[in-house]
Amino acid sequence: MQHRILLVEDDEAISEMVRSYLVKEGYQVESAFDGEAGEHAFRDKGPFDLVLLDLMLPNRSGMDILQSIRKSSLVPVMIVSAKDTDVDKALGLGFGADDYISKPFSMIELAARVKAAIRRAEYASSRGLSEETANQKHSITLRGLTVDFDSFSALKNGEEVKLTAKEFHILKLFMTHPGRVFTKAQIYVMVWEEEYYGDENVINVHMRRLWEKIEDDPSHPEYIKTLWGIGYKLGDAVQ
């Protein structure tokens, strides 16, 4: 089955170059040339396995589209933009982008990173459990830590771990999606069910409190590990 890619790029020459190359690599590519068209394509022509998204678009910015996508989907999003400052990169990844490639770029590098992003998503999906599956299982135990979905409780080596509602849902998110990387924006949208405005302190505080309750050494967490500059994932040692 061909992987489907949504390419949102207003420069038609660049768009055609990227589309042609990716088609030769075996992908099916849907092109959009402005923000509104990109958002409509994502909503009406999906599902897609990856979104290639320019930041500077007419009608609606790439950042707006990214936030809109993250309200309903964890599809990999790779930002492709001439805006290559560290601030722009941090902003893009902070709002839930999975990768960032700056113009100009080589097609070989782009294709390699597209392949890697899709492969990571498929691996996470194959290792993960859906919410429905998780609820059917009622509980999950990983290396001495048990999360009970019926009673909204957690046990560490048989002893109760007193979690707040938000801490429980953060832990449940990672326990039911082993192998999947979540950005701070994705955690906020999925746990708080509100639009994320870039306030990292909220996530930082909740993650620190959660580590203090479930980790043997909160300074060196093993259950939920930090991927610097990207987000968090369930530790390999407990999967």
Write the layout of secondary structure elements.
Layout lengths: L3 E5 L3 H13 L3 E5 L2 H10 L5 E4 L8 H9 L6 E5 L4 H9 L4 E4 L4 H21 L3 H7 L1 E4 L2 E4 L4 E4 L2 E3 L3 H11 L8 H9 L7 H15 L9 E4 L3 E4 L5
Parallel strand pairs: 1-2, 1-3, 3-4, 4-5
Antiparallel strand pairs: 6-7, 7-8, 8-9, 10-11
Helix pairs in contact: 2-3, 7-8, 7-9
Written overview of the protein:
- The chain has 239 residues and is α/β, with parallel strands linked by helices.
- It is built from nine helices and eleven strands.
- It has helices spanning 12-24, 35-44, 62-70, 86-94, 107-127, 131-137, 165-175, 184-192, 200-214, and strands at 4-8, 28-32, 50-53, 77-81, 99-102, 139-142, 145-148, 153-156, 159-161, 224-227, 231-234.
- It has a five-stranded parallel β-sheet, sandwiched between helices. It has a four-stranded antiparallel β-sheet with strand order 6-7-8-9. The chain has a two-stranded antiparallel ribbon with strand order 10-11.
- Helix 2 runs parallel beside helix 3 (62-70), helix 7 (165-175) crosses helix 8 (184-192) and helix 7 (165-175) crosses helix 9.
- The chain starts with a strand and ends in a 5-residue tail after the last strand.
- Residues 127-136 have low confidence and may be disordered.
Oligomeric state: single chain
Low-confidence stretches: 127-136
Strand content: 15-25%
Structural category is alpha/beta
Strand order of the largest sheet: 2-1-3-4-5
What is the 3D shape? Answer: elongated
- Counting DSSP H or I runs of 4 or more residues, the number of helices is 9
The average pLDDT score comes to 84
Q: Describe the biggest sheet? A: 5 strands, parallel
